[in-house]
Fold this protein.
Amino acid sequence: MTAPRIISGTAPVLIVADHASNAVPPGIDLGIDPALLETHIGIDIGTAALAEALAFALDAPAVIATVSRLVVDLNRDPDEPSGIPAASDGHVIPGNLALSDAERSLRLAAIHTPYHTAIDAAVAAHRPQLLLSIHSFTPQLATAPAEARPWPIGLLHNTDSRAPRLALPLLAARGLHVGDNEPYSGNTLNYTMDRHAEARGLPYLGIEVRNDGLRDAAGVAHWCAILADTTHQLLRQLR
């Protein structure tokens, strides 16, 4: 299955989850130890469950990826080499190293294009007032073990910071240490939101939850409650 999972809803919010799956479609051999697909390089751990829970809590539509980021990275420009990664956090992906232009184009057409077409369709159908992009990050990168990642949650944004500027104090008021463009910067890693939110002038939050908080149902429920309440407050303030 390569088509994204679509959840229906009526709230003026659209939820997307670019890296919610570790599935590898039949016929694709990444040439890696399958155990790596269970780690952060193969999937944003916990994001499928969080995106689904948040969609139901808000009664919001959602577009959730069903293919591993190691097959196609849906949050990257398809014209860039990183769209089909050759390596991730120190692990080489042999099956992606020698793709012909034709093979690369076929893979992108089968996975990247339908995902972003589905987001376009959801935006057109629901006309959301806010887009939420759900990601998670590992507490520590293997390639940067000395770099601390102390934030339980971070908000990513590029040039449009309307929603993050409102959400940062809302989350901080809960006693959370919130990363502002941490652990990554939305100035460089923001393809999906650049394409579907920035390009349309839609407010958005690029949400990064540290994945040690999403490894069980209790953690997912905890973050769902926080993000649902924050979203309700944001919608009131954005009007």
In short: The first strand starts at residue 5 and ends at 7. The chain has a mean pLDDT of 97. Residues 5-238 form a domain with the Aminopeptidase fold (CATH 3.40.630.40). The CA atoms of residues 23 and 67 lie 5 Å apart.
